[in-house]
Amino acid sequence: MSLESTNPALAAQRNDASFESLWEELNWRGLVHVSTDAAALEQVLAGEPIVYYCGFDPTAASLHLGHLVQLLTMRRIQLAGHKPLALVGGSTGLIGDPRPSSERTLNTPEVVAGWVDSLQKQIKHYISFDGESAATMVNNLDWTQGVTAIEFLRDIGKYFRVGTMLKKDIVAKRLNSEEGISYTEFSYQILQGFDYLQLFRQYSCTLQFGGSDQWGNLTSGTELVRRAEGAQVHALGTPLITNSDGTKFGKSEGNAIWLDAQLCSPYAFYQFWLNQSDADVIDRLKVFTFRTREEIAELERSVQDAPFKREAQRALAWDVTSLVHGELATTKVIEASGAIFGKGELEEIDEPTLHAVASELPHASIPAQEATAVRLLVDTGLVKSNGEARRAISDGGAYVNNQKITDPDALVADSVWLHEKFLLVRRGKKNLALVHRG
């Protein structure tokens, strides 16, 4: 399988040479939450090249923010000379790892196969498939689809102890819930352990990592390799990304930040990073960028001394959006953001970006023949009444496409509509809304 990276940003990425070891840098960046043997792992990562893997289950058509943590960790380890295996779970995706609350909806093999292809294309954007440390893409359907149930139970199942499986955190939570847990999801940890065993046998893979919420599944693999092969292999759990207030990012929480531009526009993606709080932004820079310790320390001083400049947030938003969507898309987003607040030409914002803006702002649909200034302000919710709208206009605080409104009853001319479809309505300096031509 030929999978050359499509991302020019990879060539510029470097680990920080100020650290004595990769392990030290991973810890400083907050990427080590739990591991099988920290001292042994530090030695292994500082030694001869090893093969390591991270798995991604196709439970949706796109990867999201949580996956980006793993992809960037894969890249950091690859930059140290080690060889990654990117596993997309064509078989485990048919099952789904247990969720804390309820059973997953099982998707058809056709849907899962389509998602496998989509995720593989996304993954090759973040790690290199060229050179001495070239990555290899693998699919666990390749080694599971030919195994019979009897073979699986005899050759793999015999190494697992039900008592140990029941003690896994996620299993224990589900057993104590109203719904319980099906045998299908209960068996997921065996399938993931089987993956590690197969990759150990086929590629001499000796390290698996993933989110710390997967720790029970990760150690299922290390235990299976130990029992079946008598070998010691390693596991590493990265922390779950949360806000300083404890809020979790992730699609299970209904607020996923997708890496696919069709599901989360570059504009929305950039705004997400730009809006990170002062309490969170430095940790985000450590995890999601390749900026050095010195560069991040300088940005941290800026947060402390001049937080109103939001230099750290702008650096974070530029780095991550450029990585995911490219520098050209990021530049367009920045220009659009400036134009929306009167610091550029609105006419130069392309239509897809305006659609993205609409999803982020209050918006309304108004027929062109009814688009008076008063109607625009009221229907978008920028004011509560016609009287309030007239007062805002009289006070000089209402704008359409950054032009001050003077006549509350005048219809907006056809030539004013952006792309013949949109109007940007503003009250004061920061209260914005977008109108679609109805």
From TrEMBL:
Asked whether the UniProt record includes ATP-binding among its keywords, one would answer yes
Residues reported in the UniProt entry to bind L-tyrosine: 53, 188, 192
Ligase as a keyword? yes
Q: What class does this enzyme belong to in the EC scheme?
A: ligase
What are the GO BP annotations of this UniProt entry? tyrosyl-tRNA aminoacylation
Motif 'KMSKS' region: chain residues? 248-252
So what EC number does this one have? 6.1.1.1
- According to the UniProt entry, where does the motif 'HIGH' region sit in this chain? 58-67
Mind telling me which GO cellular component terms the entry cites? Answer: cytosol
Q: Which PROSITE patterns match?
A: AA_TRNA_LIGASE_I, S4
Q: Where does ATP bind?
A: 251
Q: State one molecular function term (GO).
A: protein homodimerization activity
What highest taxon heads this organism's lineage? Bacteria
Q: How does it assemble?
A: Homodimer.
Q: Which family does it belong to?
A: Belongs to the class-I aminoacyl-tRNA synthetase family. TyrS type 1 subfamily.
What function does the entry list? Catalyzes the attachment of tyrosine to tRNA(Tyr) in a two-step reaction: tyrosine is first activated by ATP to form Tyr-AMP and then transferred to the acceptor end of tRNA(Tyr).
User: Can you say what this protein is called?
Assistant: Tyrosine--tRNA ligase
Organism whose genome encodes this protein: Nesterenkonia jeotgali
Q: Which gene encodes it?
A: tyrS
